[in-house]
Design a protein that fits this description.
Elements: E1 3-5, E2 17-24, E3 45-47, E4 57-59, E5 69-76, E6 82-84, E7 89-90, E8 96-99, E9 110-116, E10 126-130, E11 133-134, E12 144-147, E13 156-162, E14 172-174, E15 180-185, E16 189-190, E17 196-202, E18 210-215, E19 223-224, E20 227-230, E21 234-242, E22 245-248, E23 252-256, H1 262-271, E24 277-283, E25 294-300, E26 307-309, E27 320-321
Parallel strand pairs: 16-23, 25-27
Antiparallel strand pairs: 1-4, 2-5, 3-4, 5-6, 5-7, 8-9, 9-12, 10-11, 10-13, 13-14, 15-17, 17-20, 18-19, 18-21, 21-22, 21-23, 24-25, 25-26
Organism: Sinocyclocheilus grahami (Dianchi golden-line fish)
Pfam families: ig (PF00047), Ig_2 (PF13895), Ig_CD22 (PF24518)
Domain Ig-like: 87-175, 177-255
């Protein structure tokens, strides 16, 4: 930020100007230091005036530390010819700050406020920026920016400035919740000795910090992390969390199929190798894991004139065959 302090002065014509300079916070009866010789100002202060009547200066890279009273002083060729323009100019440096709500819901109205500790006139006009780009249609005289029916495109870093001044406030982040989704690796069917892999993704801003997994109709989480291995059938969903809250995904269905003991299956094939066709179909049981499932084994003779069936009533730890 740069500012110019405009200044003019006069002096008796019989005096000759020997030196002109600016000083800060002058105290009577004490020496007045020249700001152009002060290391804190020497690279930032430029005298724009002359030794006749113009005493303007330009100060660049202005910060809070520059809040002082500044006075112009000149020294003539006469022993009594030293004057200081008191009380001078009092400079107050303040920040502009954007206040934004912490949580925003898509489709709602959002109001941002540009605040300053300085007392501003009613004619003060504010300019708003999103991601450092000016929102020319958003110039507002009452230091507020109203975003109606916010969408994801409205998310970003908002800052403000006073029209006619180069200082722009630090940016405030406006975040909108985004989507959380679950994907399944594979068919989504659990087979013996295996599991179904689920992955949770979120495009939240800021990014999700952690993930939790839930089974529908259960209040307690069944897992955590961005990936989860489902060992049983059911409907599962994930929740993504960041510092602004959480959002859950839609649920996906994992199915559990009845399975057949491999050794028993091979034994049955071996017993009935004399048949043309051997058809084996598996039928899942109910959602109750203790309920049995069954499989039908259809055997057809080579001569095609005889139809035989076989019933196996008990298969330990697997399922019952029924024709």
């Amino acid at each position: 930020m740069r500012l110019i302090m405009n200044c003019t002065y006069t002096y008796p014509t019989e005096y000759k100007i020997m030196k002109v300079f600016w000083t800060k916070n002058p105290v009577k009866s004490e020496e007045h230091p020249d700001l152009s010789e002060d290391p804190e100002y020497s690279q930032r202060l430029q005298y724009l005036g002359d030794k006749q009547q113009n005493c303007s200066i330009r100060l660049s890279h202005v910060t809070h530390k520059d809040s002082h009273m500044y006075c112009f002083r000149f020294i003539t060729d006469k022993p009594d010819g030293k004057w200081t323009g008191y009380p001078g100019v009092t400079l107050t440096v303040t920040d502009l700050q954007v206040e934004a709500p912490e949580r925003v819901t898509e489709g709602h109205n959002v109001r941002l406020t540009c605040k300053s500790s300085c007392t501003l006139t009613d004619r003060a006009t504010f300019i708003w920026y999103r991601n450092s780009q000016p929102l020319t249609e958003r110039r507002d005289g009452n230091n507020q920016l109203l975003l109606q029916s916010v969408r994801r495109e409205d998310a970003g870093r908002y800052s403000c400035a006073l029209h006619g001044h180069s200082y722009i406030s630090p940016a405030a982040q406006l975040n909108l919740p985004r989507t959380v989704s679950v994907s399944i690796t594979g068919s989504g069917e659990i087979v013996e000795g295996d599991s179904v892999s689920l992955s949770c993704s979120s495009d939240s801003n800021p990014p999700a910090l952690n993930f939790s997994w839930f089974k529908e109709n259960q209040s307690s989480a069944v897992g955590s992390g961005q990936s989860f291995s489902a060992l049983q059938s059911g409907r599962f969903y994930c929740e993504a969390h960041n510092q602004h809250g959480s959002q859950r995904s839609d649920a996906v269905t994992v199915t559990g199929e009845a399975f057949i003991n491999t050794l028993l299956y091979l034994h049955i094939i071996h017993l009935f190798v004399n048949y043309d066709d051997l058809h084996l179909s598996v039928h899942p049981g109910t959602d109750d894991p203790s309920a049995s499932s069954y499989a039908a084994l259809d055997l057809k003779s080579r001569s095609n004139d005889l139809y035989n069936t076989l019933t196996v009533s008990e298969i330990p730890k697997t399922c019952a065959f029924k024709s």
